[in-house]
């Protein structure tokens, strides 16, 4: 008789291990803070060895970023969907508006994480590299679709999109009522208008 039970997927165990380590990391951080969250303590809390951490995360920075990613805001920065720049930035703005209500809930740990980043050169360099890759990818997508019609460098546009978005996120953390959806839409519409060359 054929086995009717589904065999576990190969990735399930790894995913469960990563989830357990991230959960343990949050437990330690919530008690001791980011700076004092040692890999030994995280591994002990998860009932694993330090080696288990390095089997799933290349470095402490990777573990911290993975755990922050589970509670951070999910903002879609994929601009490969065909459309005019105004349409693309409108779609981005609408996605940002959907996630902004979650921003105030990140205030406490986000502020502490930012302080930790400032004090940890290796983590700061790691994050800077991630942003550099993100900007390169966004810029490549902008160039592929809008090419010579852009009035500014594609990389500068990627930086402007990110900076405008994070400005709204931080303002929403500080004063949610001061960030109406209309303001977000209007700002990205204005950016799209200014970033495209006017016909000669």
Number of helices: 9
Task: Specify the overall morphology.
Answer: elongated
Distance between the termini: 75 Å
Number of strands: 0
How does the helix and strand content classify structurally?
mainly alpha
- Reading the helices and strands in chain order gives HHHHHHHHH
Low-confidence stretches: 1-8
- DSSP strand (E) fraction? under 5%
Mean of all residue-level pLDDT scores:
89
Number of domains: 2
Amount of helix: 55-70%
Question: What is the CA-atom radius of gyration, in angstroms?
Answer: 21 Å
Largest sheet features: none
Could you explain how this protein is built, in words?
The protein has nine helices and no strands. The chain folds into two domains: 12-70, Arc Repressor Mutant, subunit A (Orthogonal Bundle), CATH 1.10.10.60; 74-194. It has helices spanning 10-32, 39-46, 50-56, 60-71, 85-99, 107-119, 121-146, 154-174, 181-194. The longest helix is centred in the C-terminal third of the chain and has 26 residues, at 121-146. The protein has 200 residues and is an all-alpha fold.
Provide a concise account of the structure shown.
The protein has 200 residues and is an all-alpha fold. 70% of the residues lie in helices and 0% in strands. It has helices spanning 10-32, 39-46, 50-56, 60-71, 85-99, 107-119, 121-146, 154-174, 181-194.
Write the layout of secondary structure elements.
Blueprint: H1 10-32, H2 39-46, H3 50-56, H4 60-71, H5 85-99, H6 107-119, H7 121-146, H8 154-174, H9 181-194
Helix pairs in contact: 1-2, 1-4, 5-9, 7-8, 8-9
């Amino acid at each position: 008789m054929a086995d009717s039970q589904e065999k576990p997927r190969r990735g399930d165990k790894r995913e469960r291990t990563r989830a357990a380590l991230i959960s343990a990391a949050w437990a330690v951080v919530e008690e001791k803070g980011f700076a004092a969250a040692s890999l030994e303590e995280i591994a002990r809390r998860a009932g694993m060895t330090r080696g288990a951490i390095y089997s799933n995360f290349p470095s402490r920075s990777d573990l911290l970023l993975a755990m922050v990613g589970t509670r951070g805001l999910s903002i879609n920065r994929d601009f490969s969907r065909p459309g005019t720049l105004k349409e693309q930035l409108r779609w981005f703005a609408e996605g940002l508006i959907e996630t902004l209500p979650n921003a105030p809930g990140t205030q406490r740990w986000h502020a502490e994480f930012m302080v930790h980043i400032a004090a940890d050169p290796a983590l700061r360099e790691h994050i800077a590299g991630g942003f550099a890759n993100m900007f390169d990818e966004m810029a490549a997508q902008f160039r592929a679709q809008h090419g010579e019609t852009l009035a500014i460098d594609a990389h500068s546009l990627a930086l402007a999109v990110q900076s405008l978005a994070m400005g709204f996120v931080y303002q929403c953390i500080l004063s949610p009522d001061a960030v109406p959806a209309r303001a977000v839409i209007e700002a990205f519409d204005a950016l799209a208008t200014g970033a495209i060359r006017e016909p000669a």
